[in-house]
Amino acid sequence: MKIAYSEDLGGLLALDEPVRKAFKNQLAVWESLGCELVDVAPDLAEAADVFETLRAFEMEAAGGAFVEQHRAELKTTYVKNVEKGMNLTGPEVGRALRKQTELVHEMARFF
Length: 111
Fold this sequence. Notes:
mainly alpha, elongated
């Protein structure tokens, strides 16, 4: 059996040393069972930016008017996300949607 793994998704995740050690110990278990291990990760370098852009876009669409009326009563992180959505341009949203589609295709190829 061939198993793909990644300690940190190509450098995107930070792991504490005890977690990294436990992870590597488990790899040894899979190898001892005869599995072929391949250290590989999908390219997710732009995933966070895509997520943050589309989240802001959708939060503004759903709650922009509400924030305008109740800003002082709302959690600041929510307000900041809605404000980010208010400031997005059409090309920025379009780019994020294209990149989201590319990420979906990347994941399909990976698996």
